[in-house]
Design the sequence.
């Protein structure tokens, strides 16, 4: 439960490790103890879902801590920051993680934790970066800002196509979630009766209602849960993309997102339909595999 705020505090205060003796081992130890507590001494009064989710997320945050604090050098990490627009392109600059303990560093630390694919960061896969064109000296003209270095130009993406595709994804995700709720939450007895009628009346198997319910749980409920979870994650991702790229732009273009910032969460669905183990693993894990490969 406390692993996430401890990880935020550790990354935020990393610049003070060399100044305050004992701060680094204290925060590292607290991170490990928090994760171990979530796994081996869970809070029993919060239900199984909260217990398992807390343990899973605590382990994932420890993995993120190892990646960011041990495998990576925070002082060398840089993030693409929007500077200005140049005709049909956008001018970005590679900005390091702010060393001053302030709101900007806090936002960048939160982005590092919530962005495991490192989209827009120099330590992530180049697959999650847009085509970059360096800006040399006077090439940027009046758009070159002296306080920014390592500037690059990125072509403006097709926002209209992005918004249409992601709005369609949000709609499909809503329909999938609503169908799951209607079938298994609101009309579960009726669904079991329908399956029982099909097995006995159409197929003539002469099975009991209890056996029909087992069929529903084993062959309908499990795939339904997977589809609903897939739709929920994909729908939330698309909704955030529509909000950032579409709605935020109405008020401010500087802080609005761009289509390249929201690549697909999953791989191709055809891997699931082919029932191929390698394809299913690729579907779920291909962003993380790309980062490790790079």
Sequence:
């Amino acid at each position: 439960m406390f692993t996430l705020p401890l990880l935020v505090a550790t990354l935020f205060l990393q610049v003070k490790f060399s100044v305050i003796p004992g701060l680094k081992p204290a925060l590292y130890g607290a991170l490990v103890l928090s994760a171990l507590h979530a796994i081996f001494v869970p809070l029993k009064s919060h239900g199984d879902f909260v217990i398992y989710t807390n343990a899973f997320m605590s382990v994932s945050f420890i993995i993120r801590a190892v990646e960011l604090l041990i495998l990576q050098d925070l002082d060398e990490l840089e993030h693409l920051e929007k500077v200005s627009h140049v005709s049909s392109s956008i001018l970005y600059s590679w900005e390091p993680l702010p060393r001053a303990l302030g709101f900007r560093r806090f936002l960048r630390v939160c982005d590092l934790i919530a962005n495991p694919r490192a989209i827009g960061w120099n330590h992530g896969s180049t697959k999650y970066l847009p085509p970059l064109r360096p800006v040399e000296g006077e090439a940027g003209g009046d758009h070159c800002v002296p306080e920014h270095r390592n500037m690059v130009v990125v072509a403006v993406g097709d926002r209209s196509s992005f918004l249409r595709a992601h709005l369609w994804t949000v709609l499909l995700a809503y329909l999938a979630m609503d169908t799951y709720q209607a079938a298994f939450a609101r009309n579960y007895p009726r669904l079991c009766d329908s399956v029982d009628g099909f097995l006995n009346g159409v197929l003539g198997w002469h099975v009991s209602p209890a056996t029909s319910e087992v069929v529903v749980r084993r062959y309908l409920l499990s795939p339904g849960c997977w589809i609903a979870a897939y739709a929920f994650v994909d729908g939330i991702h698309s909704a955030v993309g529509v909000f950032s790229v579409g709605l935020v732009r109405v008020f401010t273009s500087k802080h609005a997102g761009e289509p390249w910032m929201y690549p697909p969460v999953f791989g191709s669905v055809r891997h699931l339909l082919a029932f191929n183990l390698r394809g299913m693993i690729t579907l779920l894990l291909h962003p993380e595999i790309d980062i490790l490969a790079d």
Remarks:
- The radius of gyration is 24 Å.
- Residues 3-71 form one domain.
- The CA atoms of residues 203 and 277 lie 32 Å apart.
